[in-house]
Structures are given as structure tokens and as C-alpha cells.
Amino acid sequence: MTVRVERTEVAIIGAGPAGLVLAHLLARAGIDCVVLEDCSREHVESRVRAGVLEFPTVELLRELGLADRLDREAMTHRGVEFAFAGQRRRIDFEALTGKYITVYGQQEVVKDLIAAWLDRGGALHFEVADVTVRDADGTAPSVTYRAGGRSHRLDAAIVAGCDGFHGVSRASIPAGALEVADRVYPFAWLGILAEAPPTTEELIYSNHERGFALYSMRSPRVTRLYLQVTPDDAVENWPENRIWDELATRLPTGAGFDLRQGPILETAITTMRGFVASPMRHGRLFLAGDAAHIVPPTGAKGLNLAVADVVVLADAVERFLRHHDPAGLDGYSAVCLRRVWRIQRFAAWMTAMLHRFDGDDRFDRQLQLAELEQVTTSVAAATALAENYVGLPFERR
Ligand code: RFL
Ligand code: PHB
Predict the structure, then answer these.
(1) Could you give all domains of the chain from N- to C-terminal order, each with its CATH number?
(2) Which of 4, 114, 147, 323 is deepest in the core (most CB within 10 A)?
(3) Ligand 2: distance of its center to the CA of 153 in Å?
(4) Is the CB of 157 under 6 A from ligand 1?
(5) DSSP bridge partners of 159
(6) What are the pLDDT digits (tens) for 173-231?
């Protein structure tokens, strides 16, 4: 069968936040790229995931001219609350760091990035199948795939593996060429999206003796709530009334907090894991975002970390393709991994401080409460949390 051959400078696998932001960054630098996505546009635009955007992420979207709708519709949060031992304490990001976070659904970001990309005539193929990375260890890599009943080959100078944790990019790297660090947590999150107006202006992370709960939101009409559950739990075990009862138990009561109920639009269980593959490169294949690493969601970092990677990658690719300087590509993995591990540390620390671990004794519990006391009373400790939460500055030239 004939193979359709196309050429570009950068082949991007995956139209999630990493792949789409990379495409826009490269286009700004005048670099040609093609994005390949195995799901449909409807599917990627409706996948409910992250909601918290760091300050540097939002600044970058603005700089790229991709934040018009975000600036109209998103919610600015200047702090966050922690509930524990019957109290609520606020950490004031703005006072401590001068920065804030933005609450805007990941699928809204993805919608905006796709619309802007297609508007400017960018190449993006949905529903491609059998995506395979070829000859990554030579100087002429390519990606083959099937679409519209035909076989295709996309030749490129660089392949960007932005295809998430279960993608093909990382899996195409020979065993032995990657080192993996992995931590699976002994719990999961049950997340719901409910058509109910938020009762507070900011997120509430709650440490409760029955387990962690998180109060978040997506808009003035939709709340996003999470409960710590066991890793083998199933959505079928959680009828609506059980979810609301458990949320009411674990979230604070009184003092302006009123858990408003409403129709549940979606329920899903997410396992909790920290994972890092290194190096984030194999020859001309560069991994970015969840394809290279995942963090437990307690720090709200995964999407933001994906964006931080592609900021470094776009810069490195430009130096290589436009100035024949491979230094950026050679340093890519080390530069990204420095941030990745700082974020893993933050997410692991938040996770340890807020969840109930099986086998916790009275001593462990008191240590958790003391940690929360320290973080919410010491300006130094609160500042350390705030600067990580609002987002460490990107590494840029
Ligand atoms: P994505 O978003 O998974 O995108 C990868 C894309 O690649 C496609 N793909 C392929 N395409 C072509 N060929 C193949 N063989 C392919 N295989 C896969 C996929 O269809 C998809 O479109 O990875 P990316 O771009 O690296 O982005 C990472 C983020 O999605 C992820 O880290 C966050 O969602 C994590 N996360 C959060 N991050 C935050 O920054 N703030 C948060 O508040 C936050 N909350 C969360 C989260 C993740 C959660 N879940 C469901 C895991 C809350 C939850 C519950
Ligand atoms: C969310 O709103 O989905 C969310 C917020 C904070 C987190 C994780 C998820 O830490």
C-alpha cells in the first residue's frame, strides 16, 4: 500500500496541554510543526481533569495571545484554605508572594488552544491510529500512523512525545535506556463535578480523620469535589447520597461554609502516583508532560509541569533548528528534571500532610496536625507553600 509522506520540522504526538502549548510556542518562533492526536476533538475537549493554573502558566498563555476567554471567564484565587481539627485557616498567596492562581478547567484551556491553532491554519490531525516513532536514535526520525484509511509517514528533525502517561512515546524507548522512579500511593481520589454554586471563594483542602477531602470549583455554577477513597474502590460503590454525606462529614461546617448540593455531572476515580522517567530524551525524541512524569494531584501541578517542560523544549528546538546549537537539547532533560523533582517533593509533601494513611497511629496524626499548624501560622512556612503553589518561575533564556 502507498504511504503518504509529509515533512515538518517538529512532529508533536498528543494534543493535550503539553503538545498544544508546544505547537503555539514553536509557531511563534516560526518553526513548522504537525500535531497528531489519537482521540477525537470532542473527546479531548470534554475530558474533565485539572482546574488550577499557576501564575507563570497564565502569564505564558497571555503572552501567546491565548488567554482572551480565560481572562473573561476564569476565577482568580488569591489564597487557599486548609481545614483541620475543626478549624479553617487561610494562606494568602497575594500577600506572601504578590501572585495568584487561576481556576479554569483544563478542557477549557484545551478548547482555546485547539481553536486558536486551527484558526491560524496549524496542522492537527485527530483520530490517528497506530502512531509509531521511528529512528529516534538517528538524525532522520519519523512518525508513522494511519488516518482516513491510509498509511502516513511524517518525517521531522525532532519528535516531541506529548502523549500523556499511557502514550506510545515513552513506551517506544528501549528498556534500559530509561530509568524510572515510581511511587504508588495507597489511596485514590473520587472526583465529582456538580451543578451547584460554590459556597466559598477559594479552595479548601481538608484533613479529616476519615480521610482527605477537597473543595474546588470550575465556575460560579459548578463545584468540583474530591474524596480520598481506597485504590480498589469503584464508582458503583458511591451512590450520590453517600458522596454528599461523606463530603459533609469531611468538609468544614459553619463559619460561612454551606455544602450546596446539585446534580452530579460526572464521577471518576483517579489513582495517586508519582512517576519520573529519565532522561526525558532518547536521541531525537523528547518527552514532555505526563509522558515523562506524573505527580499526585494534591499540589495541582501536572498540567503546569507539562507547560514548564515545553517552554524549555521550544527554546531548545529553536536554538537547534535556527542557530545550529544543540546545547539546549542536550540540557533539556537535566533542566526539566530539576523542576520535576521540586514539584514531586511539593506534591508528595502536600499528599503526606493531608491524607489518612492506613496504619497511622496517634503519633503520626499529631505530626500531621502540627505540620498544618506550622504551615498556617508561620509566615516563613506559609510563604514556602505559597511560592510553590502559585508556581516557581519558568526556566527561560
Ligand atoms: P495529556 O493531557 O494526557 O495529553 C496527552 C494527549 O495525547 C493523546 N495521546 C495520543 N496521541 C496520539 N497517539 C497516541 N498513541 C496517543 N496516546 C495518547 C491523548 O489522547 C491526549 O490528548 O498530557 P499532557 O499534555 O502532558 O498534560 C498533562 C495533564 O493533563 C495532567 O498532568 C493534569 O491533568 C494533572 N492534573 C492536574 N494538573 C494541574 O496542573 N492542576 C490540577 O488541578 C490538576 N488536577 C489532574 C488534576 C489530573 C487528574 N486526573 C484525572 C489524572 C485532577 C485529576 C483528577
Ligand atoms: C481541581 O479543581 O480539579 C483541583 C484543584 C486542586 C487540586 C487538584 C485538583 O490539588
Answers:
(1) 3-77+100-181+273-356 (3.50.50.60)
(2) 114
(3) 39
(4) no
(5) 11, 285
(6) 998 999 999 999 999 999 999 999 998 889 999 999 999 999 999 999 999 999 999 99
